[in-house]
Amino acid sequence: MTMFDRARRRTSRTAEALRLVSVSKVYGTGDGAVTALDGVTLSLPTGSFTAVMGPSGSGKSTLLQCAAGLDRPDRGQILVDGEEMRGGSEAELTKFRRDRIGFVFQQYNLLPTLTVEENASLPLRLAGRKADRESIRAVLTQVGLGERLGHLPDELSGGQRQRVAIARALVTRPAVIFADEPTGALDTRSARDVLSLLRETVRVHGSTVVLVTHDPVAASYADSVLFLADGRLAGRLSAPTAEAVAERMTHLGDEAAGRRADNGPLMGV
Description:
By secondary structure, this protein is α/β, with parallel strands linked by helices. The chain has one domain: Rossmann fold (3-Layer(aba) Sandwich), CATH 3.40.50. It has helices at 3-10, 60-67, 90-100, 116-126, 133-142, 158-170, 188-205, 216-219, 242-262; strands spanning 16-27, 34-45, 49-53, 75-80, 83-84, 101-105, 176-180, 209-212, 224-229, 232-238. The strands form two sheets. A six-stranded mixed sheet has the order 6-7-8-3-9-10, sandwiched between helices. Strand 9 (224-229) and strand 10 form a beta hairpin. Helix 4 crosses helix 5 (133-142), helix 4 runs parallel beside helix 6 (158-170) and helix 6 (158-170) packs parallel to helix 7 (188-205). The N and C termini lie far apart (47 Å). The relative contact order is 0.18. Residues 1-10 and 264-269 have low confidence and may be disordered.
């Protein structure tokens, strides 16, 4: 057992990793106002892998941004690992994110002048926490980069860069890891490897992963899929297959197109 595993087991978690209660977000005012989220309530258990999908304009990106503390909802309550994400100052919100949330983005967001090991340890250093070199190397080994510690991002493939990003998210032992289209810039094989690694972080590390994606194949790696339409929850699919996800997305897309054509009210299912 590595030092990382021992530290992880000492970290207590609540049974519920993420809860949203009646969360709403509106952009703009007056006739130009757009309701991106309309009273969304959901609960995700610790140690789960959930994909979030919906047609263009459904609110899935806004859901991620609000749930991850990157944007502030207009109304509602967000709890991460049992702690409410309150308003407060930007510094307080940043500390909340650093203590409880990890991120994996489509474009990796690695610093080009830092090595693999230095990029992985960066969140700890920014938070003023001691970067345990043995633990960081153990995480990088677990994601398949044990032989690449001193390499720079430009010396890595796209899939390897995303593995660095996943390791960077893991080293802080967050309550929730948000992955925003993490395979969007990867070829098919690299995308499959990254998605398998995300599943592995749930199984081995007990992580909670929320994946926002437009790809039914990517969503099929999750335990369940949440569907959004017009800023509201529009259903859940457990043990998803790519075919079942694609069929549901086609149905939601047709409904959204029909409502736009009719200029009717925005309604969730």
